[in-house]
Amino acid sequence: MQLDWLTVSAQIVNFLVLVWLLQRFLYRPITNAMRRREERVEARLSEAKATRAQAEDAARQLAQEQAGLEERQDEILEAAREEAKALRQRLEDEVRDEMEARREVWRQNLAEERAELVASLQRQAGHQVLRVVERVLADYAGTDLAGRVVEHFTERLEALDKETRDKLAEAARTQDRTALVQTSTVIESAARARLTRAIHETLSTDIEVDYHEDPRMIFGVRLTIGDHFLEWSAVRYLDRLEAEFGEIIETASLARGRGGQGERATT
Amino acid sequence: MEISPDTQILYQWGDWRLNATVAFTWVVMGVLVVGSWAITARLSEGETVSRWQMFLEVIVETIRAQIAEVGAETPDRFLPFVGTLFLFIAMANLLAIIPGFQPPTGSLSTTAALAICVLMAVPLFTIARDGLGHFLRGYIRPTPLMLPFNIIAEASRTVALAIRLYGNVMSGTVIAGILVSIAPFFFPVLLQLLGLLTGFVQAYIFAILAMVYIASASRTRGGTDGTPPDSKGD
């Protein structure tokens, strides 16, 4: 057994060549392929991990959102209920207020109408009374009632105070000493004479007296000297009566209108 | 009886003689290189990997794992050298079952050549990593008196490696030859099977020992481990 050194060196060369060839064709490609695959697997794993982390984050967020939504759902429902309640209350109040206002207006209108009706009735009644009195006076004016009126006027003339008498006498002096007597109807000559005498006695004897009829006076006597006049007439009474009627009606309707607001309208 | 394929001259051209050792070495090389090339030419980096690629990946990964187990921190540095040692020896022993094939590992020249390669590789890897000065200082450690013993240790290690592989492979062939002459039927088949097993074991041991030498050398030179390089054996 001996060593063939040529063969040994050839084998060394062969082995080194084989090392190079296998490095070239086996180890490098295989390790590279494995490393690349590992890198890819690693990349995919990390990607999957990242994706999973993202998905978990998203799921957690969704769960939180859902919980928040459920929580808020109750709150929203409660709020909506409260709002609806408040709205209903407000609408009811509004309707009630409106109805109250309308009823108030209606009541006022009713009271006003009633007051107006009462006033109008009273006014008509007053007028009617006046008409009746006027008719009665007119019917009886032609009788000796006129004489009584003249007599009464005479009495009043004689009962005048001195100041008025002087004033009338002064007026007669400045007005050519004429006096005008207006009556509602024709009076008898005796009554005329008595009235003329009374004027002469009371004021001045040289006063000329004119008599004149004025149907508008309805019933009464008027003595006019210049700007002054003395009158006794049923018209005055009637005017005063009408004025008083008017006042009464006014106060009554006011009182009714005020009192009617508080009470229910009854028919 | 033919013991060494060195003496078997297949072709002679002038002074150049092509013996069986070199020729069968080329055959082994050809099988390895062509097989690797055929598979690695169609490498896949995706999810679907061909069966043959898987096979190669398993082999390469196993070798890397073994290197890492022995203690090398960077297996890729030693993979080409140690891996080729294993693959060459394993393939040579595997092809021995083919009738007429004479494994080149059965030649002392081949095993000596591999042992010399290991002998050269140990300091080369150390120098490549730590530098020449660091490597040379390792021979005079712990004292310069140890210089001759260190040199003897290096040489004996190489010789032991060479003789071990040669002896194992050659003995297998010799035993087969003897058994065939004694019991021509059945026994040779069993021995062939045994030979396959021992062939792989030899390849494994040779490669692992080479790696151990390299690793321990770099460790002792680096001063991190005091384990004597020769404490491991087969």
Describe this entry's structure for a reader:
- The complex is a heterodimer of chains A (267) and B (234).
- With 267 residues, chain A is α+β, with helices and mostly antiparallel strands.
- Chain A contains five helices and four strands.
- Chain A has helices at residues 5-141, 145-158, 162-174, 189-202, 234-260; strands spanning 178-183, 208-213, 220-225, 228-233.
- A four-stranded mixed sheet of chain A has the order 2-1-3-4.
- In chain A, strand 1, helix 4 (189-202) and strand 2 (208-213) form a beta-alpha-beta unit.
- Chain A is rod-shaped.
- In chain A, 17% of the residues are buried.
- By secondary structure, chain B is mainly alpha-helical.
- Chain B has helices at residues 20-40, 51-70, 75-94, 108-130, 132-137, 147-182, 187-222; strands at 9-13, 16-19.
- Chain B is globular.
- The chains are: A alpha+beta (267), B mainly alpha (234).
- Chain A binds chain B through residues 1, 3-5, 7-12, 14-19, 21-23, 25-27, 29-31, 33-34, 36-37, 40, and chain B through 3-4, 6, 19, 21-22, 25-26, 29, 32-33, 36-37, 40, 43-46, 53, 56-57, 60-61, 76, 79-81, 83-84, 87-88, 104, 107-110, 112-114, 116-117.
Short description:
Chain B: Keywords: ATP synthesis, Cell membrane, CF(0), Hydrogen ion transport, Ion transport, Membrane, Transmembrane, Transmembrane helix, Transport. The complex is a heterodimer of chains A (267) and B (234). Chain A has 267 residues and is α+β, with helices and mostly antiparallel strands.
User: Residue share in helices of chain A?
Assistant: over 70%
**Global morphology of chain B:** globular
Biggest sheet character of chain A: 4 strands, mixed
Radius of gyration of chain B: 20 Å
Shape of chain A: rod-shaped
Give the averaged pLDDT of chain A, no decimals: 82
Low-confidence stretches of chain B: 222-234
Helix content of chain B: 55-70%
Provide the β-strand percentage band of chain B.
under 5%
Main location (chain A): membrane
Pfam family, one (chain A): ATP-synt_B
Organism (chain A): Jannaschia seohaensis
Family (chain A): Belongs to the ATPase B chain family.
